[in-house]
Design brief:
The chain is an alpha/beta fold and 383 residues long. The protein folds into two domains: 3-187, Amidase signature (AS) enzymes (Alpha-Beta Complex), CATH 3.90.1300.10; 198-242 and 281-375, Amidase signature (AS) domain (Amidase signature (AS) enzymes, Alpha-Beta Complex), CATH 3.90.1300.10. It has helices spanning 3-11, 63-70, 113-120, 137-143, 177-187, 203-206, 212-227, 242-261, 268-277, 284-297, 328-333, 362-375; strands at residues 14-17, 32-36, 74-79, 91-92, 96-97, 126-131, 146-149, 169-174, 198-202, 231-235, 303-307, 337-344, 350-357. It has an eleven-stranded mixed sheet with strand order 1-3-2-6-8-7-12-13-11-9-10, with helices on both faces. It has a two-stranded antiparallel sheet with strand order 4-5. Helix 5 runs antiparallel to helix 12 (362-375).
Length: 383
């Protein structure tokens, strides 16, 4: 057994190892990558965490994987995920539970939890996930790494098993901002960077319930932003219901997944969700209202700052229905968002704060994160 396999036995992050291919010289030479199991990797079945797809062999790499491989990255294999992407704890009924590398017995979040665990646990320097309502950013926050959800349509979704096509995007995770930046330069070469000068916090978010450590992380980021000379403002209360927007997005995802996978053999949990989706009310109006609020704010500021999740990583078996409340906003608006490590709680578990940016300015968010983290009081991560 090699070192990676030994680490993986403890974490259960990688569910299938990819065939080894000849090394390629490039900008990412030697950089190891874990790929969420709903993204095509040559030589592996794209299961999307579903037993009914165990034989769904990929004919080749998805474009996002192919770009990294062509730049010299080493694809390790498929990472564990919630079944069909419908979940936020990465406790899969067929491939098992992924452990948080920072504390056994704690969740990694989901649905890209295996990808986050692979990076945080030292299996890979980079990981690909997918984000519908927070599935890249929440695991990144819970494991103390960076998680970038690009804007809709920036990266190709070809070769990705969809959940909710109107919101799904491939995303990138890394433990170091420089690795994430290098990968982004490969995925979207020479993207125009617009400096972030004005930042807003939504009054609705400030008034929301969140753990004390999460609020402290948010406040620290705001203090740093002001100290750097950024203009920070509070957008007035907008009537936005975070819970309503999140629920509408979730049930839209369940409904579409039910239409796509309802005839397949799925777990009892997924079957129950599909049955409930038939009774869920239409959420188009609430989703549109959340989108308009975010896009309206981004017409007058360059970025919005808010927590990634209302809490830090919790114990397996606990239920926190509000995990997606903050992440849903960028997803519904179709704009980029970057989750950044922002300290730890009293139990030593990481806090995540995210920045939502204007369409097409992922590079600007990465540059902002570099600036802020350079000013973060040490030790930034006591993990």
């Amino acid at each position: 057994m090699n070192d990676l396999e030994a680490i993986n036995r403890r974490l259960n992050a990688i569910t299938a190892w990819a065939p080894r291919m000849a090394a390629v010289e490039g900008a990412l030479s030697g950089l190891t990558v874990a790929v969420k199991a709903n993204i095509d990797v040559a030589g592996l079945a794209t299961t999307a965490g579903m037993a009914c797809r165990r034989e769904a062999m990929a004919l080749g790499d998805a474009p996002v994987v192919a770009r990294l491989r062509a730049a010299g990255a080493i694809i390790l294999g498929h990472a564990n995920m919630d079944e069909a992407g419908l979940g936020a704890v990465t406790d899969n009924p067929f491939w098992g539970r992924t452990e948080n590398p920072l504390r056994r017995g704690r969740t990694t979040g989901g649905s890209s939890g295996g990808s986050a665990a692979a990076v945080s646990g030292g299996l890979a320097r980079l990981a690909l996930g997918t984000d519908t309502l927070g599935s890249v950013r929440i695991p990144a926050a819970y494991t103390g790494i960076f998680g970038l959800k690009p804007g809709r349509g920036v990266l190709s979704g070809e070769g990705v098993v969809p959940l909710l096509a109107q919101l799904d995007v491939p995303g990138v995770m890394a433990a170091q901002i420089e690795d994430l930046a290098a990968a982004w330069d490969v995925l979207v070469p020479a993207q125009h960077l617009v400096p972030v000068v004005r930042v807003a916090v939504l009054a609705d978010v400030q008034a929301a319930t969140m753990a004390p450590a999460v609020r402290a992380g948010l406040e620290t980021m705001l203090i740093l932003a002001r100290a750097m000379g950024l203009k920070v403002e509070t957008r007035p209360f907008s009537g936005l219901c975070l819970r309503e927007a999140r629920l509408c997005g979730f049930w839209e995802a369940v409904s579409e997944a039910g239409r796509r996978f309802g005839g397949d053999a799925v777990s009892p949990r997924l079957a129950r969700l599909f049955a409930k989706a038939a009774d869920a009310s239409e959420g188009a109006a609430a989703m549109a209202r959340a989108r308009d609020i975010v896009l309206g704010a981004l017409q007058v500021v360059d970025a919005i700052i808010l927590p990634t999740a209302p809490q830090t990583a919790f114990a397996h078996g606990e239920i926190h229905a509000d995990q997606v409340d903050f992440c849903a906003l960028a997803s519904l608006a179709g704009v980029p968002a970057l989750s950044v490590p922002a300290g730890v709680d009293l139990d030593g578990m990481p806090v995540g704060v995210q920045f939502i940016g204007r369409p097409g300015n992922e590079a600007g968010l990465i540059a902002l994160a570099r600036q802020l983290l350079a000013c973060w009081p040490e030790p930034r991560r006591e993990i």
